[in-house]
């Protein structure tokens, strides 16, 4: 995941952003929460390398919550998001402390906490780094529906092991998960009749577009909103 595209357009992080609230521990992790506590369906959003204080990510959480879901955005990076201007910790060094496998293990207590509070259905969406965590959750059947947006490094073999409905939203301009690879994922999923899937490549956008867009770029905003709509639609179809 050492591609420069992972680091493009870093967000201005805001710990107080969003309409929801931040709690010190949900399933053992600090987390941003949005939506109704009474909801029987929950969605976990897993950030890219810039973490859970991304303003656009919290906007997505608030929007998903408006569709009736209890939304959790855990701080899987433990207050240590990637900092592009830290020369002592370039991405290959930073990632050693934040492997997606670790994120996968830390997601399990979050899911358990949701079940304990009465949630019956859990979906999850992840962006770049978070997309790798999502695929691990989908392989382990820890969730009932998955959405992966401009994923980090995942393989055809990973996709062969997916056990829950999965939506993969890719970018046309992506060196990490290029359209050719996304199409291979679609072929694998089409051959697996037991797993519902939706695969889409968004034209004219680059890796990271759905959560690191500029609000001044009308086309980028429209594309990001389309991806968010597709994400919510997938949960609406599969979390029931």
TrEMBL record:
GO molecular function: hydrolase activity
Residue stretches making up the Dienelactone hydrolase domain: 29-237
Pfam families in UniProt: DLH
PANTHER family on file: DIENELACTONE HYDROLASE, OS05G0399100 PROTEIN
Full protein name: Dienelactone hydrolase domain-containing protein
Species per Swiss-Prot/TrEMBL record: Panicum hallii
């Amino acid at each position: 995941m050492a591609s420069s595209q992972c680091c493009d357009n870093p967000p201005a992080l805001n710990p107080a952003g969003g309409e929801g609230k931040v709690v010190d521990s949900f399933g053992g992790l600090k987390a941003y929460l949005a939506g109704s506590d009474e909801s029987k369906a929950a969605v976990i959003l897993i950030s890219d390398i810039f973490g859970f204080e991304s303003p656009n990510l919290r906007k997505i959480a608030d929007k998903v919550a408006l569709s009736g879901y209890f939304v959790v955005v855990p701080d899987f990076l433990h207050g240590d998001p990637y900092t592009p201007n830290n020369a002592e910790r370039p991405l290959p060094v930073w990632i050693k402390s934040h492997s997606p496998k670790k994120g996968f293990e830390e997601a399990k207590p979050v899911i358990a906490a949701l079940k304990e509070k009465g949630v019956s259905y859990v979906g999850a969406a992840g962006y770049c780094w978070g997309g790798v965590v999502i695929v691990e959750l989908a392989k382990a059947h820890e969730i009932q529906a998955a959405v992966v947006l401009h994923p980090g490094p995942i393989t055809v073999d990973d996709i062969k092991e997916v056990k829950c409905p999965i939506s993969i939203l890719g970018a046309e301009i992506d060196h990490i998960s290029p359209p050719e690879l996304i199409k291979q994922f679609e072929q694998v999923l089409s051959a697996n009749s037991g797993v519902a899937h939706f695969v889409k490549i968004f034209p004219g956008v680059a890796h990271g577009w759905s959560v690191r867009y500029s609000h001044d770029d009308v086309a980028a905003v429209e594309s990001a909103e389309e991806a968010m709509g597709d994400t919510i639609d997938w949960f609406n179809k599969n979390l029931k």
